[in-house]
Amino acid sequence: MKQNATTIKPVGQLMVLDEKTDVYHKTFTVKINEKNELVFEAYERGQALKDAYGEGEDERWLTVGPEFKDTVLLNLIKEQFKSDIELKAWLEKKGIPCKMVSF
After folding, report:
1. Which of the four, 43, 45, 77, 92, has the lowest number of CB atoms within 10 Å?
2. Chain-centre distance of CA 87, in angstroms?
3. What is the bridge-based pairing of β-strands 38-45 and 13-20?
4. How many CB atoms neighbour CB 44 within 10 A?
5. pLDDT tens digit string along 87-97?
6. pLDDT tens-digit profile of 43-63?
7. For 76, phi and psi rounded to 5 degrees?
């Protein structure tokens, strides 16, 4: 893929969700940690949570070990894309360098 102004730098963490209202705040982050684990972090806080559960704050971590991290990522790609052309278009839209070779 040719380099252009939209090419991004490699990342190890992404904010998936950040929702705020007057009574609620929820964030969902996914990252690869220093142990090469895939970690999903959820954080919720606010009056709505306190009214529903009696606690105004909740933090959760879901961790997939390094031996299954690639399995998760490959299955997500399988479920999201039905061809190399679709995957290539998505990568280019995100500015992620890729190279396609055909004979």
Report:
1. 77
2. 16
3. unpaired
4. 19
5. 999 999 999 99
6. 999 888 788 888 889 899 999
7. -65, -40
Q: Measure the CA–CA gap between 70 and 88, rounded to whole angstroms.
A: 19
Phi-psi map region of 78: left, alpha, beta (phi>0 left; psi -120 to 50 alpha): alpha
| Three-state SS letters, 15-76 | EEEEEECCCCEEEEEEEECCCCCEEEEEEEECHHHHHHHCCCEEEEEEEECHHHHHHHHHHH
Contacts of 88 (CB under 8 A, 6+ apart): 98, 100
CA distance 13 to 40: 10
Sequence letter at residue 7: T
Q: Is 10 exposed, middle or buried (0-12, 13-18, 19+ CB in 10 A)?
A: exposed
Question: What are the tokens at 61?
Answer: 């971590």
Task: Tell me how far apart the alpha carbons of residues 68 and 15 are, in angstroms, rounded to a whole number.
Answer: 22
